[in-house]
Amino acid sequence: xxxxxxxxxxxxxxxxxxxxxxxxxxxxxxxxxxxxxxxxxxxxxxxxxxxxxxxxxxxxxxxxxxxxxxxxxxxxxxxxxxxxxxxxxxxxxxxxxxxxxxxxxxxxxxxxxxxxxxxxxxxxxxxxxxxxxxxxxxxxxxxxxxxxxxxxxxxxxxxxxxxxxxxxxxxxxxxxxxxxxxxxxxxxxxxxxxxxxxxxxxxxxxxxxxxxxxxxxxxxxxxxxxxxxxxxxxxxxxxxxxxxxxxxxxxxxxxxxxxxxxxxxxxxxxxxxxxxxxxxxxxxxxxxxxxxxxxxxxxxxxxxxxxxxxxxxxxxxxxxxxxxxxxxxxxxxxxxxxxxxxxx
Length: 344
Ligand code: SF4
Hints:
By secondary structure, the protein is α/β, with parallel strands linked by helices. The protein has helices spanning 3-8, 14-22, 24-32, 41-59, 64-80, 89-124, 193-202, 211-233, 273-276, 279-285, 291-306, 315-321, 333-343, and strands spanning 11-13, 131-142, 152-165, 168-175, 240-247, 254-257, 262-265, 270-271. α4 (41-59) crosses α5. The radius of gyration is 21 Å and the shape is globular.
């Protein structure tokens, strides 16, 4: 593809995919008209920690003391500039301790191994950045129904760093919480209820509506394809690619000892790869792929590129699950029409 052709290819983001799965009209408001909602406070804190941990991975040796020291120093500097209203100085101190405990839990759980994996990759890679935050990846795929103007779409994603694990190239993304993954947190096989969850979501005869885990599977397809492209550009051989999410604002694993003024936390790290890969496609391609998900990704991307963003085909599910938390109810003609119809 020439540079001119590449520039003409429309782009989507994985966040746009997730929004479009919840409601196509919401996608239109958020990503076509760019009426985006505000970032939450939790997202801001995750960004602080994401930056501190990436800085530690980039500059520290792969040992606990060095990683913890650099992460703590960076977190302290970023926190000093963090502008957030707290009820009291005690609450502000507590929130910082939660972040520090999360950073320590990260180093303990995977940080040392991942830093060592980054060092090994850097020794082998032909240049290129392996640590973000927000290391861009993309996947370009053919639209399932080529429009008049284009037959391809580029989908952008990001990981926070890439590390090596044996014969695998692992993309890692820090997320606020893994709760939206639902079933995917507990399954390591596509066959069975993950496949059923995915296909049921798109089945017009089914009432199932699971945009968050379905979106995570589409995101996994994009990230793994983006990692394959990065692997090839950096000359990293034929490593298989994996995608891991690490939650940084999930309080379910946090314990506070108010007497000792101490915070401890643990992290639930989720590798999304095995729940995505189907053995049949893997056998055909020897790559971590899933034909069912990849085909549906092309179909969803086609709908989001071409519009018309009409939510009526899934209205019952959208009204029950997406409208109650939607930021666009006051300007949404579909929602207002239903409200007026109900009142009348
Ligand atoms: S109010 Fe409901 S129908 Fe309208 S954009 Fe939001 S989720 Fe979609």
